[in-house]
Amino acid sequence: MEYKTFTAKPYGPALGAEILDIDLTRPLSDETTDELKKAFLEFQVLFFRDQEISFDDHARVAEIFGPLGQHVGKKTISQPTDNPAVRRFHADETSKKVSGDVWHSDQSCAEVPPLGSMLYIHTVPPMSGGDTLFASMYAAYEGLSDRMKHYLDGLTALHDGVPIFGEGTPQTEHPIVAEHPETGRKLLFVNVAFTTKIIGLSEPESRAILNFLFEHCAKAEYSIRFRWQPHSIALWDNRCAHHCAIFDYWPHVRSGYRVQIEGTNRPRAPKTALTEQAA
Q: Of residues 58, 87, 106, 160, which has the active-site annotation?
C-alpha cells in the first residue's frame, strides 16, 4: 500500500515499517492520521526516527489509535511521571532487571489486553545494545501445519499475571487461535510471559504444547530486530505482535517513556465449524 502523506519503508518481511517524512511534534492532518491507522494495521509495528517528542506529543499521537490505558498490575519496573498516562522506562548501573526481557504480548492476562503501546527512547547505550525484538503472530499462525491449526482450533489457555505483577492481577482465559478484531486475520495468542496452561489438557500435555508454541512463535523468520537510536519511537499492535527487550547493555543507560493504548475487544476465536458447534 502506498501512502500520500509519508513514506512507509518495510523493516522486515514478516512485519514492521519505518515511517519517514513525518514530524510527530506538530499536529497531524486528518489524512495523515487515517494513513497512520492503515499502516499500523498493515505492518503491526511502526518505527519513527529523530522525533524529540514531549509528553503531550506522546499522548496526542498514541490517542490516534485509541484511549490511553493504565497498567493492570500492582508491581512494575516502570516509574510514574507528571502525566498519569506516561510511564518512565529507565535502566542504568543500578538495574538488576528490565521490563519485558522475554517474548510477550503486553498484559495478556487482562480480560481486555491493551490494543498497543508507544515507546519513546531518548537515551541509548553507547556503541550498541538495548535492541527490541518484534515477532508477527500472523506469520506464526500461518507457519503451522494444517493438522496443528485444526488441533488448536477452539482451545483456550490461561494467562496469569500474578507471578509477574503480584496478587490482584487478572487471570484470564483467551483462545489460542484468535482473530484480529480489525483485520480479521488469524493469529496465535499465547506467550511465554503470561500463558501458563491450556484448558482441558493434562499438565504434561499442556506443557508440551505450550513449549512447542513458545519456541515456534520465536522463530527468526517471523521476527525483526529494532536498533534504537536517540529519539526513536516504536508503536506496536499488541493484538498480533510479540516483543522482547534485550538487556545486554549493563551498566550503561537506556531511558525513555511509554504510553499504553487501551484495548476495546477481548481476543476472540475465529468462527469455524468447531467454535460454532461449541457455541
A: 106
Residue span of the structural domain in which 39 resides: 7-98+110-134+225-261
pLDDT in tens, 60-106: 999 999 999 887 766 666 787 888 889 999 999 999 989 899 999 99
In angstroms, rounded to a whole number, what is the distance separating the alpha carbons of residues 138 and 123? Answer: 32
Give the Cα-Cα-Cα angle 258, 264, 268 (nearest 5 degrees).
115
Please indicate, yes or no, whether residues 120 and 25 belong to a single structural domain of this protein.
yes
Task: List the grid coordinates of 71.
Answer: 497498567
Q: Model's pTM, two decimal places?
A: 0.94
Active site (annotated) includes residue 258: yes
Q: Are 114 and 107 in contact (CB under 8 A)?
A: yes
Please confirm, yes or no, whether 104 is among the known catalytic residues: yes
Residue 106 annotated among the catalytic residues of the structure: yes
- In this structure, what C-alpha cell is assigned to residue 246? 534485550
Report the distance separating Cα 22 and Cα 151, nearest Å. Answer: 45
Category of 154 on φ-ψ map: left (φ > 0), alpha (ψ -120 to 50) or beta:
left
Is residue 58 one of the residues assigned to a domain?
Answer: yes
The active-site residue out of 58, 174, 180, 243 is 243
266 classed as catalytic: no
